[in-house]
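Hi F.,

I've been meaning to write this up properly since the lab meeting, where we talked about keeping a consistent format for the predictions we share between groups. The idea is simple: the sequence comes first, exactly as it goes in, then the structure tokens exactly as they come out, then a line or two of notes. No screenshots and no reformatting. I'm using this chain as the first example so we have something concrete to point to.
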Amino acid sequence: MTERYLNNASSRWSCIIGLVLAIPATALGVALAVYVGWYRAGAPMENVFWMALGVMTVLGTHLLPVRMPLRGKARAATAVIWSGCLGLALNSHATFYLLSQEHAGQKRAAAVHLDQSDQSVTGAAPRSLLAIVNEREKVSVDLAKNQAYVCSNPCPWREIRSTALRARLETLVEEESAARRWQQGRDHATELFQQKRDSARQDLVAAKLSEVLNISVDNINIAQALLFAVVLEGLACLGWLFVFSLDRAPPVDHGPTKVSAVTRETSPEATPAGKTDVTDSDRPHKTSQSVSNSEQSGDWTVHMPGKETPREVKQAWLEDQVRAGKYEPTVVKVREFLGCGQPHARHVTRHLKAVMAEASPKSFT
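Output, unedited:
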């Protein structure tokens, strides 16, 4: 009795844990499928169909393992369909992860600004380097013309003009140097700013793993996306399996069991000597008194296999009991005894009824 109570309590807790895992995971998977379906298409009807396709693949991934056939071509076909649903669901969840990473990176990159303390970046920009170079060439040409001019009389203005042009040329050279230094500082600051923005776009864990493993950040992001998707789908599938477990059945007391009067009367040992078959007129009616007498007698006590006995041994024992006419197979009884699911119990029950029909076609009405 204590073992039965503990088994029932364990089954209830398994069901509760399964529901706690399965319902949020399935709801989250459906929500992600809807979001990605809305993102992938452009037209409204395309969005609707993409969302419906994503929802169906998620539901198929989560619920198909619950009632997967035990064997045969149906199991293989179900496994193939489930694999396709799983692949599409993983692709959908990975798409959401990469999209969210991209949006988060853009937000972090937008928060990065230039260093305001660098005067080469924040200060007033000098004249264009091209304008300075053009003016310097013009002054050089004017200076060359002024020096090439020949005066017939002394002309002090030529020396004055040459001096002014030389001074202007030196000023332009200095201005050009300053413009080049400003441009180099600007380029360096821009490069640092771009590096900071690129670093902010990357996920911190992915960046560190990329440095340690010497793998590109994109590959790390894809691996993380698939990992999150696999974990989510795995939690949902395991949760629903806990809720609708094929191996969870009501506990069975495997102690000594007494066989009813009908079983006693229809067994081969109960057939009178010299009589090959028992007809309906020869079979005594099942009454409460006969059942009581049968339960009080210990001759028909059957020692059933223990709880730890393999299922194949239990099934073979059932076949022997059916051939001996000591057991009438039903789906409920077979499921409780074998501790299996409803589909397997139906299959075993059909097999046992076929064995019973071959052994004694007229044993049961």
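Notes:
Residues 320 and 352 are 10 Å apart (CA to CA).
DSSP finds 13 helices and two strands in the chain.

If this format works for you, I'll send the rest the same way.

G.
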